[in-house]
TrEMBL record:
<feature type="signal peptide">
    <location>
        <begin position="1"/>
        <end position="20"/>
    </location>
</feature>
<comment type="pathway">
    <text>Glycan metabolism; L-arabinan degradation.</text>
</comment>
<protein>
    <recommendedName>
        <fullName>Arabinan endo-1,5-alpha-L-arabinosidase</fullName>
        <ecNumber>3.2.1.99</ecNumber>
    </recommendedName>
</protein>
<dbReference type="GO" id="GO:0031222">
    <property type="term" value="P:arabinan catabolic process"/>
</dbReference>
<dbReference type="InterPro" id="IPR050727">
    <property type="entry name" value="GH43_arabinanases"/>
</dbReference>
<feature type="site" description="Important for catalytic activity, responsible for pKa modulation of the active site Glu and correct orientation of both the proton donor and substrate">
    <location>
        <position position="169"/>
    </location>
</feature>
<comment type="similarity">
    <text>Belongs to the glycosyl hydrolase 43 family.</text>
</comment>
<keyword id="KW-0378">Hydrolase</keyword>
<dbReference type="InterPro" id="IPR016840">
    <property type="entry name" value="Glyco_hydro_43_endo_a_Ara-ase"/>
</dbReference>
<feature type="active site" description="Proton acceptor">
    <location>
        <position position="48"/>
    </location>
</feature>
<dbReference type="GO" id="GO:0046558">
    <property type="term" value="F:arabinan endo-1,5-alpha-L-arabinosidase activity"/>
</dbReference>
<keyword id="KW-0326">Glycosidase</keyword>
<dbReference type="InterPro" id="IPR023296">
    <property type="entry name" value="Glyco_hydro_beta-prop_sf"/>
</dbReference>
<dbReference type="Pfam" id="PF04616">
    <property type="entry name" value="Glyco_hydro_43"/>
</dbReference>
<keyword id="KW-0732">Signal</keyword>
<feature type="active site" description="Proton donor">
    <location>
        <position position="244"/>
    </location>
</feature>
<dbReference type="InterPro" id="IPR006710">
    <property type="entry name" value="Glyco_hydro_43"/>
</dbReference>
Length: 387
């Protein structure tokens, strides 16, 4: 229903690329809503960024050869390269071993864990591996190989739910309630799954029969069958479930499960864009237990098409934001939502994705993107869902 906010008449936009003389043409809808603030520019080219705060600095990782990463003392840069996590191709013999996607990094007791995804685009031939270091600035990182794999080979690929999911887009969070670490993954197919990690964070608990739960899932009634007709690609023949890129965060008293919904990329020049609202947007649900069930603002379960849009295309220029993460207010003044987005004035190619971010405020416990910081604390805002 929230999708109606994006619906507008299809228009043909012609504009001049910042780089080229010739006009770049896209056919479709660039939502011009000012419901969301413009991104604060991160000044970093990044697809699926992941950022951690450590020792008064930000470390940003993104998909690319060897998983490049950067350090800055401001989220808007300047970003200084710290090299790559993987100097060699991943030891996992699967997918694009040199060019991992969508990393996710977490620190535990002085060790940094970088989860990375290997895949062949548009297939379930995927794996999530992990590399560690005790020196985030200079490495070296040690590659420990696979945590999960899907498709027709690899670690426990024949165990449910690896048999029905796609092992990319990892995320990890420590439950503040008991210190346990939880892992989510998934993209299209059966969407987002969650399991507990072992104490060394290198594998899944009970790997041969994991206690796994589906935490977000698109059912195929209604709208998503339209998407199937729009994008007949090699996805699950049963239909397109455009949910991926999960991320978990906590702000008392709620756990939040975030994800990207819609079409992330492949917006070729001169071709028709997806109907407004079917491009990437950032959505969320919340729960009082890290294992869920997660529900959106309308009370809809995330496992039944739920998901409240927190950030989407805006101002006729910002397009398809997604690949997000959240920095919770440890080392920052306020929670921060960061993501990649495309800028119509620059281009809509994969390489044009840039880091953007906004402050998060919570209204009745629901996150709202803001353009400026507001550090004054309103105690009635904290954990009070009764208003
Ligand atoms: C944290 O790391 C230190 C040094 O590696 C080790 O001695 C200590 O046992 C670790 N603590 C925990 C809780 O794992
Ligand atoms: C969360 O739910 C699990 C069952 O899935 C239960 O064992 C656990 O105690 C719950 N945690 C909290 C903090 O309520
Ligand atoms: C989009 O790109 C134009 C041209 O480079 C720039 O002026 C504008 O600030 C950018 N907007 C965002 C939100 O990145
Ligand atoms: C900051 O937040 C408080 C509490 O939500 C609100 O009353 C105040 O108007 C906000 N100030 C600004 C400048 O946004």
């Amino acid at each position: 229903m929230v999708l109606f906010a994006f619906l507008a008449l299809g228009l043909i936009f012609t504009f001049h690329s910042a780089r080229a003389e010739s006009p770049v043409q896209y056919i479709g809808t660039f939502p011009d809503t000012d419901e969301y603030p413009l991104p604060i520019q991160g000044n970093l080219e990044a697809h699926d960024p992941n950022i951690i705060v450590y020792d008064n600095a930000y470390y940003a990782f993104h998909g690319g050869i060897g998983v490049p990463y950067f350090r800055a003392t401001s989220l808007s840069g300047p970003w200084e390269s710290r090299g790559k996590v993987l100097k060699e191709p991943s030891i996992i013999k699967k997918g694009a071993r040199k060019r991992p996607w969508a990393p996710s990094v977490i620190e535990k007791n002085g060790t940094f864990y970088c989860y990375y995804a290997l895949t062949k685009g548009g297939t379930r031939q995927s794996a999530i591996g992990v590399a560690t270091t005790t020196n985030i600035d200079d490495g070296p990182w040690e590659d420990h190989g696979a945590v999960v794999s899907t498709g027709s080979s690899g670690l426990n690929y024949d165990v449910f739910p690896y048999t029905v999911s796609n092992a990319i887009d990892p995320a990890v969070m420590q439950d503040p309630a008991d210190g346990k670490f939880w892992f989510t993954w998934g993209s299209y197919w059966t969407n987002i799954w969650q399991v507990a990690l072992t104490d060394d964070l290198l594998s899944v608990e009970n790997p041969k029969s994991p206690d796994a739960r589906n935490v977000a899932y698109v059912t195929l009634d209604g709208r998503d069958n339209v998407m199937l007709k729009q994008y007949p690609v090699d996805y699950d023949p049963q239909g397109i479930r455009p949910v991926e890129g999960s991320f978990m965060s906590y702000r008392a008293p709620y756990y939040y499960l975030w994800f990207s919904h819609g079409k992330c990329c492949h917006f070729p020049e001169g071709r028709v864009l997806p109907p407004g609202g079917d491009e990437y947007s950032i959505r969320v649900g919340r729960a009082t237990n890290i294992t869920g069930p997660y529900v959106d603002k309308d009370g809809r379960k995330l496992t039944e098409n739920g998901g409240t849009i927190v950030y989407g295309s805006n101002h006729g220029d910002v397009y398809a934001p997604g690949g997000l993460g959240v920095l919770t207010a440890i080392g920052t003044d306020q929670d921060i939502l960061y993501y990649h987005y495309l800028n119509k004035s620059i281009g809509l190619a994969h390489k044009d994705a840039h880091l953007g971010w906004n402050y998060l405020a919570y209204e009745d416990g629901w996150p709202v993107a803001k353009s400026s910081s507001n550090t004054s604390t309103d105690p009635s805002e904290d954990g009070d869902d009764s208003r």
